[in-house]
Amino acid sequence: PKILIKRKVNMFKKLLSKLFKGGSAAAMNKAQPAIDPAKVYDYSKAGANWDSVCKINIGQYQSPIDWPNSKDLTLNETLKLNLAYNDMENVQVMNNGNTLMLTSDKMGGIEFEFEGKMLKYKGVQFHFHYPSEHAFEKAKYPIELHIVHALESGAPEDYQYQNAVIAVYFDDSKDTENKFIKELDLEELGNTTINLKQFMDQFDMNNFYHYKGSLTTPPCTECVNWLSLNTVQDISKAQVKMMRDHWEKYTKYPNARECCPINGRTIYKSCQEGMKIQVKDSISSSYFQKEQRNQFKKKK
């Protein structure tokens, strides 16, 4: 009997430990706030019906865009991007009805040198879109990760581009599980460990695209220095489905805004090389073109 009691006490201690660390499904589910339907964006027309909430009729620098072919971009070898991210523990994953979002004040940040300014941005959150919001000559990847930053220093207070967003693309054509996504433990929403520094350190910071644009969700403010990393990550089809299932129960549609006109903007590349993977060879054929949205709606 004493041995049995001791075992039960140890089991109880382990359970308490998991609860206080946010490790149990019950504790994690309780941490999720209720979804407010009024705050779920209407993606039925991929953002084409957002004029009233975005006032996009007054803006010419909207995002996302369809990236032109690398040979048509403007080479600017003075562009510099330095990463200073951290690995973090006990970061909460939130489903806000539009996406899965991870927020932390301990993310670290980036330095971006452009137009003679060394801009220092602090990371504030990152989230996901299905399919990718940016396209490559009309082709899209299954998942696009946005790492969102807020300006800390390096520019006047009235500097327009108060945010910087790094875009990372994921391709499921090889159906290979992504270690970073797996470690986020997105199936059971709650507190998780984010190996952000380890994940981002693998990228070539000398090879990226840049343009000036907007937030891709309401209010679509034109305040973003967009930075697109040009090494595509593998992801499994099961991981893609798991992620989109979280928000599509609320949005009913893919959570990607349609591509917007470039309107004469200069699109830069930091080196001559351009994309390391030929998008039309690597992308899954099921993610081509906006017409896929209608097919998706019929399947639902």
Task: Write structural notes for this entry.
The strands form 2 sheets. Strands 2, 3, 4, 5, 6, 7, 9, 10, 11, 12, 13, 14 and 15 form a 13-stranded mixed sheet that branches. β6 (108-114) and β7 form a beta hairpin. By secondary structure, this protein is an alpha+beta fold. The longest helix has 19 residues, at 2-20. The protein has helices at 2-20, 25-31, 51-54, 179-184, 196-200, 237-251, 279-282, 292-299; strands at 66-67, 74-75, 80-85, 88-95, 100-103, 108-114, 117-129, 135-136, 143-153, 163-171, 191-194, 208-213, 224-229, 233-234, 268-269.
Q: Helical content, roughly?
A: 10-25%
Distance between the termini: 56 Å
Which percent range describes the beta-strand content? 25-35%
Helix and strand content put the structural class at alpha+beta
Short overview:
The protein has 300 residues and is of the alpha+beta class.
